[in-house]
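Title: Prediction job returns without error message
Component: structure pipeline
Severity: low
Priority: P3
Assignee: unassigned

Description:
Job completed but the reporter wants confirmation the result is attached to the right record. Sequence as submitted:
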Amino acid sequence: MKRAIRISIGLVIVLLCALVGVSGTQALLSVQDTGSGGRADRATRVAVASPEARRIEDAVTATGTIMPIRSVALVPDAPGRVTSVPVTSGQRVNEGDLLIQMDERAARAALADAEATLGEARQEFNRVERLAKNNTAAEAQLEGARANLLRAEAAVMTARADLQDRAITAPFDGTLGLIDIETGAYLDGSTPVTRLSDLSTVKVSATLPEQYFDRVQPGKTVTITTPAYPDRTFEGRVSVRAPEIDRDTRSFEIRADIDNPERRLAGGMFAHTRLLLGSYDGLAIPDRAIISEGLQSYVYTVSDGLATRTEIDAGKSFGDLTEVRGAMTAEARVVVAGWDRLSDGAAVTIAEGDAQGGDR
């Protein structure tokens, strides 16, 4: 009887072990299925884009100052009282135009006196010269008469120059500055009365870092904008590059000539200067794909269903695109949405309709 009971208990235990074994096997198979087929269920959905080919301009920017191609301060050559001002501030004038007339009565009188003296000296020289031909006048008398004639001629030239100094005329075509001189004012012969500037062409002066010295040569294209005309661009070419580097700033000066037929640009204007050094073919990606951490930038690229953290060197900006340098290729697929849930090596799936030029 006891033996039958022990046998029954053994059978129950065997049956329970069998049931536990079946359950454990099913659980293990379930775990294995999740580890293999469930990977796709845990993949992060992302949107991707491919880099765009761009022709990229290599340029450097700087601040500059606009100057007339030539400009002079107009100063009277002699003191005197103003009798006429036939021009106005800001007027465009031609070479030789009268700008300010000063009292010339004394100068005209001095010229008339000098011319009269010249006439007398010429007559005396002619008389002595005739006598010398007849050997009736000494050689010394003839030389004295010649010297008097030369001095009289010089006096006339001086008087004429003094008369001309009583008028200020334009030395070249240009635009006048402010004129605050009125008729009756006395000029001391040392104070400028206005400036004359040739604005048909202007120069822009800018300073560039030393590293660009070898790349800047006359003829390079320069474009500028100014606060006065924020929606307009003016173009010119480098005319001069300074022959040396400033030891204090480690920079050098360039000057560029810009045609200014409408005279819209004026001396002293501030200029945002852009100097084109060259161009090259490159790639650009959407700004929203770029992740920055401190001084480093990177993106996630997708290949074979996995995300890879890829370091990049960001370059020039083109609206909502940024140049990317380094190992990036045109065939790469860059994550533009969903990267905030990724880590290096994470499984990804590309959302239908979210691939932008790169889901191929």
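Comment from assignee: result matches the submitted record. The mean pLDDT is 85.
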